[in-house]
Amino acid sequence: MKKAKTMTMDGGNSLTSNDYVDAFSYINERPVDDISLEFFYKPHTITLLAVSIATVIYTAFVRDESSIQDNIWAGICCVVFFFLIVSVLTFPNGPFTRPHPAVWRIVFGASVLYLLALLFLLFQSHSTVYEVMYWIDPNLRNFHIDMDKEYAVNCSDISFAKVWSHVDVFAWGHFLGWTFKAILFRHTGLLWAISIMWEITEIAFAHLLPNFLECWWDSLILDVLVCNGLGIWCGLKICKVLEMREYTWVSIRDISSTTGKIKRAILQFTPVHWTPVRWLDPNCTYMRFFALSQLVVFWQISELNTFFLKHIFEMPPSHPLVIARLCLIGVIVAPSVRQYYTYVTDPRCKRVGTQCWVYGAIMVTESMLCIKNGKDLFGQAQMCNVIVWLVIQILVSIGCVYGVVLYHRYFEPTKDSAPETPKKAN
């Protein structure tokens, strides 16, 4: 009989099994524990194939084919539809299993489609990319960014009404974004480092992106302290509540009341358990140290892509393409950060997760697309600002990470380097 082996996963959580569980498989295609409704987890490949083919046959033969543009759209939608179905059947679900592994397989499939679309656009001329966008939305022809609009004017004229006027939908989006980031990173030092460095990034690139120009009170008070600070605080509080919660799952079939069944169905969209993270500890290696510093810099580049894409290709912030990209990146980055965390903190994980790999490719391709199609814009770049920004990014990220290491070494001497095992679902 084989002796049970104990392994350390996700920053120190002890898992016991009869066979050695590969760390990469655990983050790349995590199995579902304690299945209560077997119907939703049994393979239905033949049924899915039959329904898919029937749907395509019906829509292909009954729809109106008089419009060429509608025909192209229908063909693209059909390709996307079948690609996502293949994603459900073949792609890994990553480190998450709630609400269902199929959801995360669709997310992975959508990220691959987005990467392929970016690679296609990368090999097109600037005018061709614009024509593709105008074909998607003809209204973009009439939209142009007002480069003459003034920002950060009359900064000395401060009043409550003026400050309150800046608390708009974008401020709420800013707050919610940092709440989401806090839930992903779960580390105060790293979050504040990213927050402060982003303000430095805005200053460095304000000569290229005029909307980065802000009054000092808008940048320091509204952005750093209110939106970023409250978002980080709320996100970490949510993490603390989820960490202290007792995760005991009961099958929906064992619940008698209708209210209880509805509550259990809603809870299916919450984590199966909560794993505390520990990015750094006093004994971390230099590779782990630089990998985390690299993450902080890459996060800044990913944020910059958002603003350069909509500026170079002239899209309003409220355009569906901009919002769709933000939503897609948001759901992609969640499993990517978890996979990167395991890769950095678990010495037995020798490969980065596939979703993290795809996200890295997306980030680089977006940057190349911006540089290639924004030659006129980047030709106006003040290289001194960019070089100083890059040096500051590297120094601040390394300094912040090193400061966190010193904090754990001298101010948390009684804590173990590995967190306690989270409560498992029954």
Summarize this structure briefly:
With 426 residues, this protein is mainly α. The chain has helices at 23-28, 45-62, 68-90, 101-122, 126-136, 160-165, 169-185, 188-204, 216-244, 258-267, 286-312, 320-345, 354-373, 375-379, 383-410, and strands spanning 5-9, 13-17. 62% of the residues lie in helices and 2% in strands.
Please give the structural blueprint.
Layout: E1 5-9, E2 13-17, H1 23-28, H2 45-62, H3 68-90, H4 101-122, H5 126-136, H6 160-165, H7 169-185, H8 188-204, H9 216-244, H10 258-267, H11 286-312, H12 320-345, H13 354-373, H14 375-379, H15 383-410
Antiparallel strand pairs: 1-2
Helix pairs in contact: 2-3, 3-4, 4-12, 4-13, 7-9, 8-9, 8-11, 8-15, 11-12, 11-13, 11-15, 12-13
Shape: globular
Structural class: mainly alpha
Our estimate of the beta-strand percent is under 5%
Termini separation (Å)? 26 Å
What is the CA-based Rg, rounded? Answer: 24 Å
Please outline the major beta sheet.
Answer: 2 strands, antiparallel
Helical content (DSSP H or I, runs of 4+): 55-70%
Order of helices and strands: EEHHHHHHHHHHHHHHH
What is the overall pLDDT average?
79
Strand order of the largest sheet: 1-2
- Strands, total number: 2
Q: List low-confidence stretches.
A: 1-20, 414-426
Number of helices: 15
Detailed description of the structure:
There is one protein chain. The chain has a two-stranded antiparallel sheet with strand order 1-2. The chain is globular and about 65 Å long. It has helices at residues 23-28, 45-62, 68-90, 101-122, 126-136, 160-165, 169-185, 188-204, 216-244, 258-267, 286-312, 320-345, 354-373, 375-379, 383-410; strands spanning 5-9, 13-17. The protein has 15 helices and 2 strands.
